[in-house]
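Reopening: structure tokens for the 2-OXO-4-methylpentanoic acid complex, inputs below.
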Amino acid sequence: MINDIEIIKTKSSKINEVDFDDLKFGSVFSDHMLVCDYKDGKWHAPKIMPYQPLTLDPSAKIFHYGQSVFEGMKAYKDADENVWLFRPEDNCNRLNISSKRLSIPELPKAYFMDGLITLLKLDKDWIPTNEGSSLYIRPFVFASGQGFHASPADEYKFIICTAPSGSYFSGEVKVLIEEKYSRSANGGVGFAKAGGNYAGQFYPTQLAKAKGYQQVIWTDDHKHEYIEEAGAMNIFIRINDTLITGPTSDRILDGITRKSIIELAESENIPVEVRKITVTEVVDAAKNGSLKEMFGAGTAAVVSPISAFGYKGTDYDLPKLESTYADFLKKRITDIQTNKAEDPFGWRYKV
Ligand code: PLP
Ligand code: COI
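Re-run output (same inputs, fresh job):
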């Protein structure tokens, strides 16, 4: 544990201004943030300070060349006021995997973990306890170093902000299977949680939204033949009783929820296949009635059932089942995350 995290506390907490019974996703921010600077070839010890705007030089490379990566995590508080994280070291490792791909210097693990834990202890009162709510945590790193030369910056900032949050989606999720645009390509940055991956999705997603869909289902960039992932989630498809999800690759984010759902389903004797799945297979399954469920999985979205998908101008409704894998697995994972159930996997992490 690093002992020297300097803490400057806020003089006026904003907590009484927040309606914890009506939380949107990621739109109000807790009192403090963690900031850590990379300068002179090394990361300097993190500091905690009141949540506040940043001052950056207009030539900071984040604005021009998009060197930025982020993570998404959640903290939960149980009935005894204990605070829990879910597989946080995996987020720390993935942040560094993303950083490496974007030529951002990797962060010492202790700065991430100890910084996060100190911040959460300080802002513990901000962790909501209502069903479906949690404290969403956003660690991110970006290039603060200056200059128009198109090369990696020499200064960076690592920041962690937190936001008491409700559900990511409100209502049913209808998705559009993409036939034209791509989110990522072989050799690209799709596997990284790079800010630019999301910027590139906004335009096609807006087009889909205008047609009544909430998310795009990305397909491979080559022939748009295979189902890959959604904008903010990995995708699971249930055909008859088998749960199928695509393998991770250069193009797909290796989701922590995804791998947990796979392990949970297997431990419950649900047949799971990690394999490529074509759009044609899904459309045929929808037509012959063997397509039972589709759902997205991710930290923000947890497990979000998909009610319908659109493809080549036709909408295919998913059946409304009495009991679903999505509901069952969502309950299993959230019960583990919130300390309502045993955690045989050792995923839960006490703050
Ligand atoms: N895929 C994308 C593109 C995402 O943004 C996310 C969200 O983090 C996921 C998948 C799910 O990953 P995780 O379960 O680690 O949150
Ligand atoms: C998350 O699930 O934590 C994410 O980062 C998705 C984000 C685009 C909201």
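The chain has a mean pLDDT of 96. The chain has two domains: 6-167, 173-339. Marking as resolved unless the reporter disagrees.
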